[in-house]
Amino acid sequence: MSTATKTAEAPEASSSRGKAPAGERIADWADGRLGIYSLAKANLRKIFPDHWSFLLGEVCLYAFIILIATGVYLTLFFVPSMAEVEYHGSYGPMNGVLMSEAYASTLDISFEVRGGLLVRQIHHWAALIFVVGIFMHMMRVFFTGAFRKPREINWVFGFLLFVLALVTGLTGYSLPDDLLSGVGIRFMEGAILSVPIVGTYLQMFVFGGEFPGTDIIPRFFIAHVLLLPGIMAALVVAHLILIVYHKHTHYAGPGRKNTNVVGYPLFPVYMAKAGGFFFLVFGVITIIAATTTINGVWVLGPYRPDQITSNAQPDWYLGFSEGLVRMMPGWEWVIPGGYTLNFGLLVPLAVFPTMLMVIALYPFFENWVTKDRREHHIAERPRNAPTRTAFGVAWISWYLVALVAGGNDVIALKFDLSINTITWICRVSFFVLPVLVFWATRRVCLGLQRRDKEKVLHGRESGVIKKLPHGEFIEVHEPLSREQLHTLTAHDQYRPAELPPATDENGVRNKVGLIEKLRVKVSRGYFGESGQIAKPTAEEYREITEGHGHH
Amino acid sequence: MSNPDDNDSRNTDNNVSDEHLPSEQGHGEVAPADDPFADPGLPPHEHRRQDIDERAAKRSERTVALLFTVSMLATIGFIASYVAIPIDKIVYIWPFGHISGLNFALGLTLGLALFCIGAGAVHWARTLMSDEEMVDERHPIQAAPEVKAQVLADFAAGTKESQFGRRKLVRTTLFGALALVPLSGVVLLRDLGPLPGDKLRHSKWKAGSLIINENTMQPLRPEDITVGSLTQAMPEGLDPHDHDFLVEIAKAAVMLVRLEPKDIKDPKSAEWGHEGILCFSKICTHIGCPATLYEQQTHHALCPCHQSTFDLADGARVLFGPAGHPLPQLRITVNDDGYLEALGDFEEPPGPSFWERG
Ligand code: HEM
Ligand code: FES
């Protein structure tokens, strides 16, 4: 034996009598190749803050994992083919009906494969919960300002995941080739055809010929099971790496600073909670799938372009695009040269991505206003950023109007109104409601800020009524603890931007561009007197508390 | 660093800059000792019952173990249901109605097995694992100025060694080659589909095509079309077993109605029909759903997809909704044998509009 081997064995020999336990030996083996001890040193006891709103991102993550697991199972049985077959399976009502292999295999999964229906239902429910989760998670990040530096890139990654989730949902919804999914594909075809100049070419290339052809489902299939999930998986990993790298934000509170993170260590507490939460989410989705049928493709039969049912509705998350289309009047122009511009579809087709971009770009807009280049690790309370909060709520109301318009026929039936009336209400609301909501939300936020200030300065209402010697009744106010005082005053307050003086100290005129002037205006709206309530100062506090003592 | 705003590195210790716009940041700042709002620091840890009372801790342990045991039982129940319950058994379960027994049993047992693992783990973490909050320090992300200077110097050295800036010819041709090479990929996409040509303008209808009732698959006679009803039809020679049936029916599907001739407002439309029988494309001109909800009193055809409403008494004019033009009408007549037949193809392309439609 050479000396080299001897030294290599030395630590083991010296560690004590006998060998190290098997687990440790495996870890040693891996460490020699992957450096896992250094990795674990940095991460095993990494601190994660705990708050219910941070669970929303986890819901998305777990729904994504569930979708992949159940999706892989479905691919084992699903046949992505539009070849026509005559059905002879165990679902009686469809006996002898001509249908695509895609539809027939979906029926087989539902009626022939034991547990296949359950997996299909889990998959569809998980998809819905995934998108709801992403939406709520995005709103959580938005309303707490968690998108601020250094997290802007992660915001963009997240937004891409949102868009990809929508597209993946759409392609998945189209696969079974039942009547509803066919209507969805037809919608897409109409939208593509409306594109000026290249529309018909695009349509032929996407569908491999005229609608419906036999290519669209195999093509959607590969996008739905490989391309889109692959990109999403990569983005999810990048998203998570950035979360670990930036460390999660936390809410203001005693001991919680912009320079630290307070919470529980990854191992064991966070691991147990997060791991456990995965099983909770999976369990709940499974129970929903067991009891509540979703997308019963067998009800309406296979897709035929000449057949339809009323109440054809897309999954909720695309309902707002449906609503945009329903609200739009049917403007169609034939321009000189004999070409058709179909604004009835083109306008919704442009408004749809614009609505998404508005929310995606907001963080960059806010940063342009504040010109703040510091890192922010304290998640804000929505009330402390009234303009942002109002903007977000207005955006949600905008989205909801479109969603409601997407269900105008359902609502018409439910409330016995004419579709015409509902459409007009939606059209007007689309422009008016966000403005009203913006205004109202800002007022509510300012009111809450005032309440916080009251609380800090005068204490909390205790509910105890006291009679003063001279007969007056007052409610006793309990002073807040030091922890509460700190928490309620810890937030940042910007000063509104100001235009530089007209001339500088040498008498030279300062040139201010239009854009800068606009920025100053917007900044005043955000941080001027109408935009926030100045938080109480230590002097105010002392004056009041000491004042009480003298009386 | 020419940007005067870019001042993170000046005060990296606490990530707080001396930016003039925002007021001072409340957290991480050293506050004067008498500041009533100063951060009092993490509150002391309060013990839970389980931390001080071993009996309470034992109870938690038993709860967690019970949850894990229920999960095991549920998995066994899952396997048992899979084996025992026939796939086509429909059961009535309140309040869900008549549902598949197997689906219900599998979902419930699997859901329970999963949920109990989760509930057990979370309960364990909350009651038995330490709940003492811990603190990690954050470190500024931006690199120290020395690091940045080093990287820039390295980069400059590399660029210089490559002679990228100096050898303009190499640079330009490289950009050219890289710009061109993706073209091959674009060209490869050409065979995704055929060129549109005039495919969208033509349907299976031609002069003399009989009009086949979709329900009976028999050619229609004028007597078959009664006032107030809507008959769905297609051209003869179209067989649902044909491989291109769906493509053809997507353009050729029609609906026939019979109106009192005096009710028809559009003379041209009346002329294209036969004794008040009018034949319209049923493919909505919005995005192509069949617009077949017929209101017999008003002669309106409504499309269920986005509620475009067409007035069949007035050349299928759009009355309401997002459709941009009327449903094309098919000219029909009666042949010598007394059957309805087409006088030709649609004059306008049926279905949703497109750029070249005109
Ligand atoms: C597939 C979809 C997504 C998954 C799986 C996912 C997952 C997660 C998880 C597990 C977290 C940490 C827990 C939390 O803060 O909730 C997180 C944080 C974050 N997510 Fe997402 N997310 C997704 C979509 C989005 C979207 C749509 C956005 C915004 C457009 C977004 C932006 C962020 C940001 C900025 C953080 C950091 C939050 C902080 O540190 O406070 N994510 N994400
Ligand atoms: S397809 Fe008929 S209204 Fe949209």
- Helix residue percentage of chain A: 55-70%
The total strand number of chain B stands at: 14
Task: Please trace the helix and strand order of chain B, writing H or E for each element.
Answer: HHEEHEHHHEEHEHEEEEEEEE
Low-confidence stretches of chain A: 1-15
> What molecules are bound to this protein?
protoporphyrin IX containing FE, FE2/S2 (inorganic) cluster
What is the chain-wise order of helices and strands of chain A?
A: HHHEHEEHHHHHHEEHHEEHEHHHEEHHH
Strand order of the largest sheet of chain B: 4-5-6-7-12
Query: What is the highest CATH level, the class of the domain at 202-357 in chain B?
Result: Mainly Beta
Strand order of the largest sheet of chain A: 1-5
The greatest inter-chain interface is formed by: A-B, 137 and 116 residues
Give me the Rg of chain A, rounded: 30 Å
Main pleated-sheet profile of chain B: 5 strands, antiparallel
Number of separate helices of chain B = 8
Q: Give me the oligomer status.
A: heterodimer
Distance between the termini of chain A: 91 Å
Biggest pleated-sheet summary of chain A = 2 strands, antiparallel
Protein model, in words:
The complex is a heterodimer of chains A (551) and B (358). By secondary structure, chain A is mainly α. Among the domains of chain A are: 2-43, no CATH class; 445-550, no CATH class. Chain A is built from 19 helices and ten strands. In chain A, the strands form five sheets. In chain A, strands 1-5 form a two-stranded antiparallel ribbon. A two-stranded antiparallel sheet of chain A has the order 2-3. Chain A has a two-stranded parallel ribbon with strand order 4-8. In chain A, a hairpin with a 3-residue loop joins β6 (332-335) and β7. In chain A, α5 crosses α6 (116-143) and α12 (319-327) crosses α13 (343-370). The relative contact order of chain A is 0.09. Chain B is an alpha+beta fold and 358 residues long. Chain B is 32% helix and 15% strand. Chain B contains eight helices and 14 strands. In chain B, β9 and β10 form a beta hairpin. In chain B, α2 runs antiparallel to α3 (101-127). Residues 1-31 of chain B have low confidence and may be disordered. The chains are: A mainly alpha (551), B alpha+beta (358). The site of FE2/S2 (inorganic) cluster has 13 residues of chain B, from loops. Chain A: Its main location: membrane. Chain A: It comes from Streptomyces harbinensis. Chain A: One of its GO terms (molecular function) is quinol-cytochrome-c reductase activity.
